[in-house]
């Protein structure tokens, strides 16, 4: 009896900010590689996540949320990264939030329609619906907005119906040899993941106080035996932002460091010695040269 052919393909996860793209990716992979918070625009880079199971390999591209916002270089970068991800994939997962439909959702839909690629509409956060009876009529309204291969309601956070979504994805994978080793779950380096973990902890702890103009640069990542020595520089744009992140007598910065170190130790499976500094670099988020030096390619 002939074995099943190998299948492998690229899948872009797109949607407006804060609809749960990164949460969905992390739960499908079974490991966090894309940072999350309740703040919109947490994801700034395309993050490649890889899931291999038997004869199937799915290569996910998690993208920044397409949005209308300030005309800063970093905003242009994020929109460009999200738009470019749609072009070179086999399938698009278009995430929307349960019953809401916004101008930004419409903007993403138009981008997806222009690409002309097979698209699955994923309706996220359905667990938050108080009245489940509104879901079916809403799905019908969504179905009328465009041509979709399927419409799949899920709860990325509660992992409800995610297995159904995975089976739908597999249907659209082309026959192909696998591009990555079975054990690899991302193409991103440990330095990149370390920087993203620190940035996530800043966003999670500071909430509404958080300035969006914050980024993290890893200055040292050295493995000595079973210990990773990591030095991270947190860049902000104003002195007041630096004070917020450091906190009274350094308490906030220490708390950020503790939370980040714990996540790094789980991800890297080794002891981590983490050192954090905060530095003011005025205007970095609107400086294309500075953004390139910080790893924001193709600004």
Describe this structure in words.
- This protein has 299 residues and is an alpha/beta fold.
- The chain has 9 helices and 9 strands.
- A hairpin with a 2-residue loop joins strand 2 (47-53) and strand 3 (56-62).
- Helix 6 (190-206) packs across helix 8.
- It is globular, with a radius of gyration of 20 Å.
- It starts with 6 loop residues before the first strand and ends in a 6-residue tail after the last helix.
Considering the chains and any ligands shown, give keywords for the structure.
299 residues, alpha/beta, Rossmann fold, GMP Synthetase, Chain A, domain 3, six-stranded mixed sheet, three-stranded mixed sheet, globular, cell membrane, small ribosomal subunit rRNA binding, GTP-binding, nucleotide-binding, KH_sf_prok-type
């Amino acid at each position: 009896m002939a074995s099943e052919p190998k299948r492998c393909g690229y899948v872009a996860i797109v949607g407006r900010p804060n609809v749960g793209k990164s949460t969905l990716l992390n739960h499908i992979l079974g490991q966090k590689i894309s940072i999350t918070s309740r703040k919109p625009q947490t994801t700034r880079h395309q993050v490649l996540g890889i899931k291999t199971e038997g004869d199937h390999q799915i290569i996910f591209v998690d993208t920044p949320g397409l949005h209308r916002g300030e005309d800063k270089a970093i905003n242009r970068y994020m929109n460009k990264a999200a738009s470019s991800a749609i072009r070179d994939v086999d399938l698009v997962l278009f995430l929307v939030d349960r019953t809401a439909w916004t101008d930004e959702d419409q903007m993403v839909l138009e981008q997806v329609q222009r690409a002309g690629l097979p698209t699955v509409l994923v309706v996220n956060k359905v667990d938050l619906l108080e009245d489940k009876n509104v879901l079916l009529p809403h799905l019908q309204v969504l179905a009328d907005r465009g041509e979709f291969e399927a419409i799949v309601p899920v709860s990325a956070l509660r992992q409800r119906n995610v297995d159904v979504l995975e089976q739908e994805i597999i249907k659209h994978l082309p026959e192909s040899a696998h591009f990555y080793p079975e054990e690899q779950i991302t193409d991103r380096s440990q330095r990149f993941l370390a920087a993203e973990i620190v940035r996530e902890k800043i966003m999670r702890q500071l909430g509404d106080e958080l300035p969006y103009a914050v980024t993290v640069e890893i200055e040292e990542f050295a493995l000595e035996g079973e210990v990773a020595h990591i030095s991270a520089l947190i860049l902000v744009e104003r002195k007041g932002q630096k004070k917020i992140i450091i906190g009274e007598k350094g308490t906030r910065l220490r708390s950020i460091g503790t939370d980040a170190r714990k996540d790094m130790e789980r991800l890297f499976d080794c002891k981590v010695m983490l050192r954090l500094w905060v530095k003011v670099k005025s205007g970095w988020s609107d400086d294309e040269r500075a953004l390139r030096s910080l790893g924001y390619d193709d600004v």
